[in-house]
Amino acid sequence: MGVLSVDVLQGTVYGFAVALQPANLLACFVGVFVGTLIGVLPGLGPVATMSLLLPATFVMTPTASIIMMAGIYYGAMYGGSTTSILVNIPGEAASVVTCLDGYQMARQGRAGPALGIAAFGSFIAGTLGVLGIMLLSPPLAAAALRFGPPEIFTLLLLGFTMITYLGSGSRLKAVAMAFAGMLLGTVGLDPVTATPRFTFDTVTLSDGVGLVPMIMGLFGVTEVLVNVEAGLKQEVFQTKIRHLLPTRQDWKDSAAPIARGSVLGFALGILPGVGAIIPTFVAYALEKRLSKRPETFGRGAIEGVAAPESANNAATAGSMIPLLTLGIAPNVVMAVLLGAFLVHGVQPGPLMLREHPELFWGVVASMYVGNVLLLVLNLPLIGLWVQILKVPYGLLFPLILLVCMIGVYGVSDNIWDVVIMLAFGGLGWLMRKTGFEAAPMVLAFVLGRLAEESLRQSLLLSRGRFAILLERPIAAAFLVATVVVIVLPVALPRLRTLLTRAAAEAS
Amino acid sequence: MPESGAARRERWSALVVLLFALAALVEARRLPFGSVSAPGAGFFPLTLGAGLALLGAALVVRAFATTAAGAAAPFVTPSARARLMTVMIAMLAYAALLGSLGFALATFALMVVLFRVVESHGWARAVLESAATAVLAHVVFKAWLGVRLPPGPWGF
Predict the structure, then answer these.
(1) Does one domain contain both B129 and B82?
(2) Which chain B residue's Cα is nearest to A453?
(3) Do B115 and A398 touch (CB under 8 A)?
(4) Is B73 among the domain residues?
(5) Does the structure show a pLDDT above 70 at A417?
(6) Pair B35, B57 in one domain
(7) In whole angstroms, what is the distance from residue A369 CA to residue A363 CA?
(8) Is residue B71 part of a domain?
(9) How many domains in chain B?
(10) Chain A: residue nearest B23 by CA?
């Protein structure tokens, strides 16, 4: 334990030395600035923005690129709350819950404290989250070093199961989307034998379906189409923003929700498929249940802003852990980040800590630096973000579409990738209309290749015996966990009715 | 019985999933399957295709078994459909013409369509906004960030 903490301490100092180099500091600033900007703007989320800026990072070092990309993600979490509070529409999906009490606070003339507590809560949660990454990653990476193909495959199986379980809509549809995503992932040359699959003799498809056009289509173009259809009009709540610093009473009310939201968000964020949105709902529900005055929730309770805003920031930190230690993307944003790593020739995972310590510790330390920058950006500069909110969507959406097309074309120099993006945009719109979610599809698409490779290698190892997945203890444990995740939600309600019936009969 | 828009939507989408899976199965069958002890290129796609076909069939059964009652809300309102079609066609045309018109000119044309037709800005305003966008995009992406974007016959 002592050795470990010395390692962590050394790593931290080293990380700050990396993160504070001018080029990396600039990357961090650009990342959190852009992140706040797109967080404030509804209709452009971190996923689309990060894939958009991927080609721009080609000229940067891997460390600076990842620092910037990560900054966009947690920066968006800060920015999203501003729109929720002032406009009552979420600037970013993870700020949906913040609308409930944040907007009510703004209507009561307390926009200042709402924005303030959102920023401070995010900062505290982000700081705790970075600490969590530093403490948890080294032992996890060490454990993951012993993983072979069977362990990786069963872990992915567990991940897929959780992804489909945690969607908001129909479970059956989510599973179907995961299968469809994996099928799309097999397009291109077979990773083992280089046999072309589903390429229809085209050059474009022999490289496979690109992650960037797919994500930009499903998340960028689809979002624009949905908004164009609805004719999105936004009205900024007209209010003078004063007293950004929360009062002593505000702090007293928010301290415990911030702490609980941080821990909850971090723990949930680590799990595959959770992302930053679900923890905000859980944190809000938890605070409402624990509160002595639950009737104030939805009417401008500051706890209702503090808890979810802390939770989403902690969750972004938590979700970095599976990527950094296992090389597995637990949500769509991390899938894009994984793409960024791969573009720069770095395979994230257990070996990264040893082979690219500057990257691991630099990125983690930069997240702390970024959180400080964000606090500075969000409190004094709040007026700037409010002005940006006043840009009408009609002016914005043609620009978003244009940037999407330039981004996709810029990555590959292939006009067909733009067509693929548009196709995914149309598909995503139809999926929204029919209740199919895009997230399981994209995640399965990203993880599918690794799943195929690890399964095929496992079968080669065992000469065709699937029992290998049960014979190795870690793999078996993942498999058991998978079964539990599948069975539990089905069995639990039945068990409860069975028990109540038994109890009723006994009495 | 008049079926609701929601029910019809469920059925169509389920059928599309099933058809997609069957198409994938047909295509995957042409790939070498290998054997379970040495899986080939077709092993994974075929398994996935079969799984998705089962899921699609389940979706179809469920969609046809439930008769969801509800307001017959239109899938998309006529005015929204017109806007959406304009956006999609304009962008496809942009992709098709980018090479021959060049980045700046194609962008200008696309922006005029989006500002004028979709957002119904006046002609003068739309042209002005579009020209500004095209110039700005040219400067930022092509000159400054160095993205390789096709030049037209006039070199921009």
Answers:
(1) yes
(2) B44
(3) yes
(4) no
(5) yes
(6) yes
(7) 10
(8) no
(9) 2
(10) A198
CB-based contact, A7 to chain B, within 8 Å: no
pLDDT over threshold 80, residue A12? yes
For residue B72, tell me if it sits in a domain. no
Residues B52, B100, single domain; the answer is no
Nearest CA in chain A to B76: A229
**Residue A11 class from Cβ within 10 Å (0-12 exposed, 13-18 middle, 19+ buried)?**
buried
Work out the minimum CA distance from A38 to partner chain B, whole angstroms: 18
Kindly state the DSSP code that residue A93 receives in the 8-state scheme.
G
CB contact A179 to B (< 8 Å): yes
Q: CB contact, 8 Å: A226 with chain B?
A: no
Cα B28 from Cα A470, distance rounded (Å):
29
pLDDT the model gives residue A1: 43
A361: confidence class by pLDDT, cuts 50, 70, 90: very high
Q: How far apart are CA B147 and CA B144, in angstroms?
A: 8
Determine whether the interchain pair A183/B39 forms a contact, defined as Cβ–Cβ distance below 8 Å.
no
Residue to substitute from A175, A183, A395, interface B, most B β-carbons within 10 A: A183
Contact A195/B41 with Cβ under 8 angstroms?
yes
CA A471 to CA A321: how far, in whole Å? 27
Q: What is the pLDDT of residues A291-307, one digit of tens each?
A: 888 888 888 899 999 99
Mind telling me how many Å the CA of A186 is from chain B's nearest CA?
7
Measure CB to CB from residue A456 to each of B9, B10, B39 and give the nearest one. Answer: B39
Q: Do B82 and B136 share a structural domain?
A: yes
Q: What's this model's pTM, rounded to 2 decimal places?
A: 0.83
Give the per-residue pLDDT at A440: 86
Q: Does A406 touch chain B (CB under 8 A)?
A: yes
Residue A3 identity: V
Cα A443 versus chain centre, distance: 11
More confident residue, A499 or A141: A141
Of B9, B38, B52, the CB nearest to A434: B9
Q: Are residues B91 and B54 in the same domain?
A: no
Q: Are residues B82 and B123 in the same domain?
A: yes
To the nearest whole number, what is the mean pLDDT of chain A? 86
pLDDT band at B73; cut points 50, 70, 90 = low
Would residue B34 count as lying in a domain?
yes
Buried/exposed A331-349: b ≥16 CB within 10 Å, e otherwise = bbbbbbbbbbbebbebebb
Which residue in chain A has the smallest CA separation from B11?
Answer: A434
Report d(CA A406, CA A220) in Å as an integer.
13
Residue-averaged pLDDT of chain B:
86
Q: Closest CB to B99: pick one of A394, A415, A464.
A: A415
Q: Which residue of B has its CA nearest to A193?
A: B41
What's the domain range around B103?
78-144
Does B59 share its domain with B88?
Answer: no
Are residues B100 and B131 both part of a single domain? yes
Instruction: Out of B27, B51, B94, name the one closest to residue A179 (CB).
Output: B51
